[in-house]
Amino acid sequence: MTKRTVSAPAAGTPVGPYSQAVIAGNWIFVSAEKGIDPRTGSIPDGGVRGETSQVLNNIKAILEAAGASMQHVVRCVVYLKNMDDFAAMNEAYAAVFSENPPARTTVGVAALPLGLNVMIEATAFKIDAA
């Protein structure tokens, strides 16, 4: 099996030495993505809800660069700095994954880089992955 890295400028640039995603066979592994607007370089307004929406927009851009879509996502891991923000994150998440949502784990963490409140990683499966 070969693997290929994915770079999606539409999702911004990584904040470290990692690939935004890796395609291995039919699997697409998206690194934990940040909720920073790639056009402005800042965290969007709207608190955790707005930040979660931006994270999911960035994941969408990465998946599109990999030849997939959000419908191919089978699992997500959500990292929340404050579990009190679960409802706000969940509302934004449900707006994207309204039908047949992927499996999900949500974990409370002590801190995230760049002052972020939420990060999400995704795993997608696509029969004809690019």
From TrEMBL:
<comment type="similarity">
    <text>Belongs to the RutC family.</text>
</comment>
<dbReference type="InterPro" id="IPR006175">
    <property type="entry name" value="YjgF/YER057c/UK114"/>
</dbReference>
<dbReference type="InterPro" id="IPR035959">
    <property type="entry name" value="RutC-like_sf"/>
</dbReference>
<dbReference type="GO" id="GO:0019239">
    <property type="term" value="F:deaminase activity"/>
</dbReference>
<protein>
    <submittedName>
        <fullName>Endoribonuclease L-PSP, putative</fullName>
    </submittedName>
</protein>
<dbReference type="Pfam" id="PF01042">
    <property type="entry name" value="Ribonuc_L-PSP"/>
</dbReference>
<dbReference type="InterPro" id="IPR006056">
    <property type="entry name" value="RidA"/>
</dbReference>
<dbReference type="GO" id="GO:0005829">
    <property type="term" value="C:cytosol"/>
</dbReference>
